[in-house]
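Notes, Module 5: Reading structure tokens.

Key idea: the token line is not a picture. It is a compressed description, and you learn to read it the same way you learned to read a sequence, by spotting repeated patterns. We will look at two proteins. The first is printed below with its tokens.
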Amino acid sequence: MPKSAKITLNIPKWRKNPSAIKKFRFVYHFLPHPEHGTRAKLLSSSAMVLYILLFFGLFAGFKLFTHIYPGVLGYASDISIKQLYELTNSQRETAGLEPLRLNTALTAAAENKAKDMFKNNYWAHISPTGTEPWDFILGANYDYSYAGENLAKNFSNSRDVVDAWYNSPSHRENLLNKNYDEIGFAVVNGVLDGYETTLVVQMFGKPRDPSLLASAEEGQRILDSYSTQSGENSAVVKPASALTESPFAITPVVSENKSVLPAVSVTLAIKGLAVVFILFLISLLLLDIWYSARHAIVKVSGHSLAHLIFLIVSVTGMLFALLPGKIL
């Protein structure tokens, strides 16, 4: 028998079958190749590069979508001013400091700062027009000797907000500052940079005139002013008698837009995608290890590990950019 004919006879039958060849090639997208000694194609260097491009594309897609359909994507939240106030004072009492009193003017200043950030689409202590936190405080006719501001956005609950402030040295300095006597909060919902979100503004102050220090009754009146009726998100609080007309034409208002339920929650979407992707990679790696050990496959290492690390760093960066919980 000719040599060429013998070679032809030794070729496995499945290699002559086009459908079997396709199946063979498809399987090794998920399994290491026994002949080439390479990882599964979905764990290869080229696959890692593709994953990175897909995640960057997803990130860009989220940004583009928010500009085309603002307010559809957002961060679900359930934040209460009462809880923020209690948690803040709890941290101060733990540190041996006096609790802060709720002040109508500081509450008005916080409210208007939050509304200004939504109106002018910025996330900063100083607005694009140069308006500083102290301008809002003075604009509410609060004459202070000490003042401070903490900001938060994209959080889902009150405790996470206060914990984030406490865990940040600069924000903790405000929370535990012994020079402050009074505080005001605003929790306002709106669309910022295309995302439906909740802004939390915390204003601290010490009145220059000690006789203007807020009474316990004033603080309780602010807390009691929050409407308990379904669908009502704000209640007007009349300014203290010591306050006069504001140069900013600000009416002290307590707004507690307690909950936000966007059409699509960015948090759930990103976490869901991340969990699915991580489980997918873990499954592939475990399958790779098991199959290689079972069939004694010695793989030729390439740069897959380096690309995998780069992929994890890229995904982590995207998660930090999109997931909630930012303070300033």
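Here is the second protein, with the sequence above and the tokens below, as before.
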Amino acid sequence: MPGTNGGPATPRGAEADHGGGESPADPGGLVIETRALTKRYGKHLAVDRLDLGVPEGSVFGFLGPNGSGKTTTIRMLMGLIEPTSGTARVLGRPMPRAARTVLPQVGALIEGPALYGFLSGRDNLLRYDSADPAADPRTRRRRAEAALDRVGLTAAAGKKAKAYSLGMKQRLGLAAALLQPRRLLVLDEPTNGLDPQGMREIRTLVRELAAEGTTVFLSSHLLDEIEQVCTHAAVMTRGRLITQGPVADLAAGARGRLVVTTPDPGEAARVLKERGVADLVVTEERVTGEPPGKDAAGRDTDLADLNAALVAAGVRVRGFGLERASLEDAFVALTGEGFDVAG
């Protein structure tokens, strides 16, 4: 597992796991499970009693603004730092105690890859592979070439890593995580530094890995990235878990935006504002806004009444309805905060 020190991550003080009655993750169970996981740095509470469950076979998005506790959580899960309190289990075993059993089954890219700048991309992978005691040296070069090809770095394999762009370094770190088949892949902001085409390629690769049976745990501050590739997600803010579940369910929990198509957008916006529609956006023949919540009697506002009000005011309504709620809508509804959508 490429860690932060240029080689496989082996936590200090990690002991070999001799069983102790622990069983591996059951098929269809949880590959990551935390209970009240907490990390403090002095008076700063970085992660606050986190209860997280990552289903086997999922592409799980770990979503939150920069500084929300995502990387700290990942470092605890991988045994790189000790929690202040609480527990973490990965592949059914306690971390960090079972690190030597668990980590060979996990590929990870955390806080960017640690590379030897004076070595080529290919030689970096060969060095990573040689540090794995389970890796067959007879097939080392074949594995390295396959990993380079998978992340689109074959043409640059002979170039020294110090000459790589940030995006190329991210790709090389991902290739290192893919040298061996993994049950779990943990990626911390994997599209950092990539151009739009590179981001699409990484999303495609993640989908392929999931189709092959690998569980992918993907942290990001980009809502659009999570919504496009993930089956499940958890939302963090200020070190606390706000919600988690299937992405479709999270989005379904928020109301979509009201959309009115009309050649009279100015008048439509005036009427909608009077009726409590917020966050209005007016374009040439389209008005969108946040539907009003409950009326004075505590009842949900009837959208048909809004449509009737527009017609009564002489607005020529060509289209009227709700757009499907996005993950961004759900996040704003849960936290009241804005968020990066696509970087």
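Summary for the second protein:
- The radius of gyration is 24 Å.
- The chain has a mean pLDDT of 84.
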